[in-house]
Amino acid sequence: MTTSASHPRRVLKLRDLIFYGIVVITPIAPVPIYGVAQQLSHGHVILSLVLAGIAMMLTAFSYGRMANLYPSGGSAYVYVGRGLNPHLGFVAGWTMTLDYLVLPIVAIIQVSLAIQRLLPSVPYAAWVTGCAVLITLLNLRGIRTTARANLALLIAMSIVIAAFLVLAVKYLSGLQGIGGLLSLRPIYDPATFDLRAIATATSFAALTYIGFDGLTTLAEDVDNPRRNVPLATVSVCLFTALFSCLLVYLAQLIYPDYHAFANIETAFMDVTRRVGGETLFQGIGIVIILSSFGAAMAGEVAAARVMLAMGRDNVLPARFFARLSARTDNPTANILLISLIAWVGSLLLSLEHAGELLNFGALLGFMGVNLAAFRQCYWRRERAARRLWADAIVPLAGFLFCLAIWVTLPLPAKLIGGGWLLVGIVYLMARTRRFGAPPLSST
């Protein structure tokens, strides 16, 4: 049974929000991309992570500012629509919906590939189907169940990652003493340093951070959203940057020759085998499964919340997209639709193509939010209330960093993502009589 009342109850605390954000991004975010990023950057993954992290931190600050002004679900759709223009808000929401739709696809693919490597006798399609069904059932139980599941997943992942950190330190100090833990080579190697290669790798490394913005889609589920949403968004992004650099730094010290990996796509697993043997090798495989499973759950929730906000404004048909379950307080129809898309997409798309599409939608949305933060927090304020650094420089710098990363995306991602964007614009034109009317029927 569903109800037309479309405002969820505020049940999530700051802790729940931070756990949710960490699980969306996953504590092992750089692990699946490590080998490819090593190859693309010529051994300078940390620099690529730092550059991408700067763009994401600046953008996270803008997200926090806009969440403070508009503490409601909908993320970039709401922020750009109210901060810039309702039509641009639809475009931002449409592109971010692509991001949120692809995030569960990427995660389900990662889960299925990892399980298939451990249990190769079961077909890949069976793992995709089973994973999609389980994620859907958990999310249909409501946001409280999702938050509890995220906490359990985070604990399990943390145990294995802690084991890797301890064994990595032991391995390196055993080889060269305490000095084995200190080296500039993972940060700067003059023999292989290439700015163009690092720039290319940065657009790929941005995948490490994708998902932090999903926190703002839960603004209506959070108590004290004006304080907790900005704090959680920036905290999660900063944690991801620092922890990712630590994992990559240790991995490069342990396995400095990135040309020697047996399989570049599972390179980090080779690193764990060197320090922890077969047990840790299997353990990191399980962690990849758990982290990707958590990301798929959280990504599905984020997509459902964006659709809820767009349905509530009747930008998408409200009768379907704005309805909440009376029992679980969840947008059940949205979750079922997203689950179907994720299942089909996981069977049809490769991990590489799905990741590129995810970055396309996310970075366009990030640019819109940065511009909205600049307009609302600086341009539209009284001169005496303006703060040059926080209100102008930070959001504009975030926009430029995201634009620079977006430009380096591969052409196929731009073509497919551009097709999605074109469909959204055509729909918007038809709905608003060629932009002659606002796309929102309510606010």
Distance between the termini: 26 Å
Number of separate helices: 15
CA radius of gyration is: 21 Å
Helix share bin = over 70%
CATH class: Mainly Alpha
Strand content: under 5%
Uncertain regions spanning at least 5 consecutive residues: 1-5
**CATH-level-4 superfamily name:** Amino acid/polyamine transporter I
* Largest sheet strand order: 1-2
SSE succession? EHHHHHHHHHHHEHHHH
Structural class: mainly alpha
Q: From the coordinates shown, what is the CATH architecture? A: Up-down Bundle
* Domain count: 1
- Tell me, what's the shape? globular
Q: If you average the pLDDT, what whole number results?
A: 84
Largest sheet: 2 strands, antiparallel
Q: If you consult CATH, what is the topology?
A: Amino acid/polyamine transporter I
In short:
The protein has 443 residues and is an all-alpha fold.
Describe the protein in words.
α4 (76-83) packs parallel to α13 (351-379). The chain has a two-stranded antiparallel sheet. The chain is globular and about 65 Å long. The longest helix has 46 residues, at 267-312. The chain has helices at residues 14-25, 34-41, 45-69, 76-83, 86-118, 124-140, 143-176, 195-205, 225-254, 267-312, 318-321, 332-348, 351-379, 388-407, 411-431; strands at 2-3, 324-325. The protein contains 15 helices and 2 strands. By secondary structure, the chain is mainly α. It has a single domain (10-431), classed as Amino acid/polyamine transporter I (Up-down Bundle), CATH 1.20.1740.10.
